[in-house]
Amino acid sequence: MAEVVTNGGVSVNELPFAQDRTRAWRELREAGEVVVSGQEVILTSAAAVELAAKAPETFSSARAFDRLGSPVPMIPIAIDPPDHTRFRRILDPFFGPKRMAEREAELRRQASELIDAIVAKGECDVVSDLATPFPTQVFLTLFGLPLTDRDRLVRWKDAILEFTDPGSVEPTPEVLTHAAELFAYLTEHISNRRSDTSGSDMLTALMTDTDAGAMTDIELLGLCFMFVLAGLDTVTSAVGFALAKLATDTQLQTRVREDFSLIPAFIEDLLRVDGPVPFAPRVTTRDVVVADQLIPKDTTVMMSYGSADRDPRRFQNPDDIDLDSRNVHFAFGRGPHRCLGSHLARLELRIILEEWHSRVGDYAVAPGGSPQVKWPAGTLTLNALPLKVKPA
Ligand code: HEM
């Protein structure tokens, strides 16, 4: 008989992610495959995470998102199959590689503008000068919204994400104000599109141009909200980790600069070693046994995609980036909720790394700068990445 999982003596919020991610992941994994942290159960191995991510009838994402009490459904993450399947059928074609490639030229132009400004200064904070503005502009561009709204969108998003971070309990009045402003902003634009459907943006297309049935206004609002929360900080994080790795590993920097065809493999294994999303929540709908441990019904389970991605039983030399590995990582998740924006994210990262290495020569972390991630947090993101850069 499986034993009910008991406290593994680990407190995830106290793991040393800020200082040393490799040590933090090792400490978590050593606590066990299924381990209790506070009120939650953490799945740490690749096998356990895979099992839970692919069993949505037992590990419910919808139940996990009830806690946020969002006034609109967070589509599609807060919906379980079978309803979830309808949304993915509508959405997947819009976020596929072909549709994304149609935007490449415009996104490349915007990335090069941001990078040219950095080269002109000779130094930058990658996080605030490039990794934050770029994905925000991408969202505005895809949805046909004015780029001049970029900075207020960043402010709204930051305030709301702070509330969704682990440990926060009640939204502050400031968070509620920012959430209301973001809803009002998105609602107004959705309603404008309803009255004028001549645009070629994604919002208009989602209203009108789908084989699987168009989305309602409230569903579109939920999707836009979800995009802002899931598709901005994740890319910010990955851009930061990518340039931090290359800035400190001059050999790899030279290889990438001399051969852009290595960039996709670098992106994939970077996402494995330093994935932006450390944990994804589910709630159990019944008692379930994982790795000989009984997890009772109604337990909040955190699937650790980050820990799975460093699991030595799945990956050789799990803490190192290997451009030849072809590792199939967990950074975009598994199962029905696998990242909707993975093709977009890959495109954004490839554009940034190509434009960066076309315009920037040698670069290194500025003296005194020792980039750290904020922890605890929902996304692992560098606080700042000060670089000294030379023109190419
Ligand atoms: C490097 C960047 C990104 C990473 C690492 C990432 C990671 C993830 C992960 C791990 C999940 C699964 C969560 C779960 O199992 O609960 C997910 C889901 C999702 N992501 Fe991403 N993401 C990234 C970029 C984006 C972008 C650019 C978008 C914009 C559209 C996006 C939209 C979504 C959505 C809508 C879902 C929910 C899918 C569903 O429930 O069916 N993501 N992402």
Note down, in words, how this protein is organized.
The protein has helices at 21-30, 46-53, 61-66, 83-91, 97-101, 104-121, 126-131, 133-142, 150-164, 173-195, 202-208, 217-230, 233-248, 250-258, 263-273, 305-308, 342-359; strands at 3-4, 34-37, 40-43, 59-60, 123-125, 280-284, 288-290, 293-295, 300-303, 360-365, 386-391. Helix 6 (104-121) crosses helix 17 (342-359). It is an alpha+beta fold. It contains 17 helices and eleven strands. The chain has a five-stranded mixed sheet. It has a single domain (3-391), classed as Cytochrome P450 (Cytochrome p450). The longest helix is centred in the middle third of the chain and has 23 residues, at 173-195. Protoporphyrin IX containing FE is lined by residues 53, 61, 76-77, 88, 95, 226-227, 230-231, 234-235, 238, 275-277, 280, 305, 331-333, 337, 339-341, 344-345. Residues 53, 61, 76-77, 88, 95, 226-227, 230-231, 234-235, 238, 275-277, 280, 305, 331-333, 337, 339-341, 344-345 line the site of protoporphyrin IX containing FE. It comes from Mycolicibacterium flavescens.
Task: For this entry, give a set of tags.
17 helices; single chain; three-stranded mixed β-sheet; 11 strands; five-stranded mixed β-sheet; globular; 392 residues; alpha+beta; 48% helix; monooxygenase activity
Q: Which CATH C-level class is it?
A: Mainly Alpha
Number of domains: 1
Strand-residue proportion: 5-15%
What does the radius of gyration come to? 21 Å
CATH topology type: Cytochrome p450
Tally of strands: 11
| Low-confidence runs | none
Structural class: alpha+beta
GO molecular function, one term: iron ion binding
Protein name: Cytochrome
Family: Belongs to the cytochrome P450 family.
Keywords: Heme, Iron, Metal-binding, Monooxygenase, Oxidoreductase
